[in-house]
Design a protein that fits this description.
Elements lengths: L26 H21 L4 H11 L13 H12 L5 E7 L5 H6 L3 E8 L2 H10 L6 E5 L12 E7 L10 H14 E13 L5 H14 L4 E9 L1 E9 L9
Parallel strand pairs: 1-2, 1-4, 2-3, 4-5
Antiparallel strand pairs: 5-7, 6-7
Helix pairs in contact: 1-2
This protein binds S-adenosylmethionine.
Length: 251
């Protein structure tokens, strides 16, 4: 069993699965980055004339899988989800929330480890496509929601996944981040985990610096404590635990 030593929590925990073997980039993988960058550029163009939700709907309607999450010819995303899962402590995840789930690839891959998974996305088009792709996945449900408006029956999630979503919150101010960190902490059951993942390449580019800022901001939240952090090519993953304020500990 794979054991991680980076956990600053009180107990060292084993993880859900082994990390996949790393792979070399090929031309196909480079095509993946070009595709994602083009999708971001198309989204920015749409946003000049309409709001975020409608822009995302248009993008998902006009381009099959804009960020290549489900396309078998691109290995990067699939490997990213496998690696993210391999970072999580081995425990019972009865109730999981995937925020900005897109086409639901992470949710589908996570089903062996979860009781039930709810995927939410601001784009109704993404949600519709995710539902079509998830027929037969009885543990997975989807609903259209903006994370800022999403409400649940109290703090009920054992795990919340927030992967590659925050670049699309515009403007991403401290106030917006504070509201979001509070919201996520409020949705987590005590002891529940947040898996936050965003693009990262050693703070070389602007997006990586923004990622570092976002993750540090969440780590400073009084209701979340950082338990592990992994810098991988090309993303940063931070796992945080919801705790009561009086027992806050930091890495
Ligand atoms: C780049 S995709 C990432 C999808 C998925 N999390 C993954 O890692 O493959 C970003 C997703 O976030 C969604 N999104 C953006 N802002 C959102 C918000 N405020 N609330 C919910 N979903 C949002 C978009 O519609 C899009 O599907």
């Amino acid at each position: 069993m794979h054991v991680k030593k980076q956990f600053a929590g009180l107990v060292e925990e084993s993880t859900l699965r082994k990390a996949p073997a790393s792979f070399f980039m090929t031309l196909r993988d480079i095509a993946f980055w070009v595709r994602s960058a083009r999708s971001d550029a198309a989204l920015a163009k749409l946003q000049a004339t309409m709001g975020l939700r409608e822009s995302l709907n248009q993008l998902y309607r006009s381009k099959c899988d804009p960020w290549g999450a489900t396309l078998r010819r691109f290995r990067y995303q699939r490997q990213k989800y496998e690696t993210l899962i391999s970072m999580l402590p081995r425990r019972q995840y009865d109730n999981v929330l995937d925020v900005g789930c897109g086409l639901g690839e992470f949710a589908r891959q996570f089903t062996p480890y979860a009781g039930q998974i709810l995927g939410i996305d601001i784009s109704s088009e993404a949600i519709e496509q995710a539902r079509q792709m998830s027929k037969g996945f009885t543990k997975v449900r989807y609903t259209q929601a903006d994370i800022y408006d999403f409400g649940a029956q109290g703090p009920c999630f054992d795990l919340i996944v927030l992967a590659d979503v925050l670049y699309y919150v515009v403007p991403l101010t401290d106030r917006m981040l504070k509201v979001l960190a509070e919201k996520i902490a409020g949705l987590l059951a005590p002891g529940g985990l947040l898996l936050l993942a965003n693009h990262y390449f050693f703070q070389v580019d602007q997006a990586s610096r923004q990622t570092r800022y976002i993750h540090d901001f969440f780590r400073r939240s009084s209701r979340l404590v950082s338990v592990a952090e992994y810098a991988r090519a090309f993303y940063l993953a931070t796992i945080m635990k919801r705790i009561e304020v009086s027992t806050t500990r930091r890495l």
